[in-house]
Design a protein that fits this description.
alpha+beta, Barwin-like endoglucanases, 2 domains, six-stranded mixed barrel, two-stranded antiparallel ribbon, 181 residues
Length: 181
């Protein structure tokens, strides 16, 4: 009960000063210097340039998008440990990369047919020269490259996608993320 009384007294004493400050700001249509500086800071932070790397896909200008040949691996590795320590499952949307950190989520776009998939990097590879990513069998099937075995792809980290690209692929990304574990 004492706490409620203290809050009421505090609000009564200082509430009028806060209201007066708000009224003065509204009357003068002037904002405090600190607020203007903070707003300018936010503008600078949020101002990012995006580059279109494919139709409907924009990425941050400072991000690296890899382009190269993808392959897939499946049967004989199913059930073995990956570089991340988890068990490889050919039915999950995972991939192996030599350069990307383990646990990174990437959007892989097949340049030959335009299909996209989101995979999680959980292994190292491919160990064949000229290839940039090894996809699980399920990921290769969804990208439409399983029967050919290889495809020319773009590998884009999800964190690099522009907000409009994320919105465009939102449903597909969420579905794919649910299939990475």
């Amino acid at each position: 009960m004492k706490g409620v009384v203290v809050l009421l007294i505090f609000g009564f004493l200082f509430g009028s000063e806060i209201n007066d400050l708000e009224l003065n700001i509204r009357k003068e249509r002037r904002l405090p210097k600190e607020f203007l500086e903070f707003r300018e800071f936010l503008r600078e932070v949020l101002k990012e340039e995006y580059v279109e790397v494919a139709p409907g896909i924009k990425v941050s200008a400072d991000c690296k998008v890899e382009r190269g040949i993808a392959s897939w691996y499946g049967g004989r590795f199913h059930g073995r440990r990956t570089a991340s320590g988890e068990i490889y499952n050919l039915f999950k949307f995972t991939a192996a990369s030599r350069t990307l950190p383990l646990g990174t989520y990437v959007l892989v776009r097949n340049e030959e047919n335009g299909k996209v998939i989101t995979v999680r990097i959980n292994d190292r590879g491919p160990y064949v020269d000229g290839r940039i990513i090894d996809l699980s069998q399920a990921a290769a099937y969804k990208l439409g490259m399983m029967f050919k075995g290889i495809a020319m792809v773009q590998v884009i980290p999800l964190r690099c996608l522009s907000p409009e690209s994320l919105i465009r692929f939102y449903d597909e990304i969420i579905y794919d993320l649910a299939n990475t574990y």
